[in-house]
Amino acid sequence: MKLLDTARTWAARIKRDGLTLWFSLRDARTPWLARALAWLVVAYALSPIDLIPDFIPVLGYLDDVLLLPGLIWLTVRLLPDGVLADCRQQADAWVAARQGRPRSLFGAALVIALWGLVVWWGWSAWEQR
Predict the structure, then answer these.
(1) pLDDT (tens digit per residue) in 21-46
(2) Alpha carbon 108 to chain centroid, angstroms
């Protein structure tokens, strides 16, 4: 039971920190490197489309379990303490108000573009055989 509680706490923290990054994009005190990484992470995290679809066994959940939490953790580490505290407070208020999860249509477009590049590359490699 303790392991399950730890996993739930960790998942809630990752979810909150994803929202924290969304708020950090609007904070002028966010350094450019953290802002650039947060922009990519937020676009992907809030995208309604996954890079690796969940129906693909094992790999489908790899981005949800390892990639995304790792990128969120890294980006949060790049934020200054004051920005992090303020943005976490905003994220907690957002969750407490039970507002809907923000969506990123740009993130969906980014994922579709990446898949398009993969398909184009695969097609080009196939044609050259």
Answers:
(1) 989 998 999 999 999 999 888 887 77
(2) 12
Q: Tell me the three-class secondary structure of the chain, residue by residue.
A: CHHHHHHHHHHHHHHHHHHHHHHHCCCCCCCHHHHHHHHHHHHHHCCCCCCCCCCCCCHHHHHHHHHHHHHHHHHHHHCCHHHHHHHHHHHHHHHHCCCCCCCCHHHHHHHHHHHHHHHHHHHHHHHCC
pTM of model > 0.90:
no
* DSSP state at residue 75: H
Residue 96 confidence class, pLDDT cut points 50, 70, 90: confident
Place of tokens 């039971």: 1
Cα–Cα dist 69/95, whole Å: 19
Distance between the two ends of the chain, CA-based, in angstroms? 55
In this predicted structure, the answer to whether residue 101 has a pLDDT above a threshold of 70 is no
Predicted pLDDT at 47: 73
Chain position carrying tokens 């934020």: 79
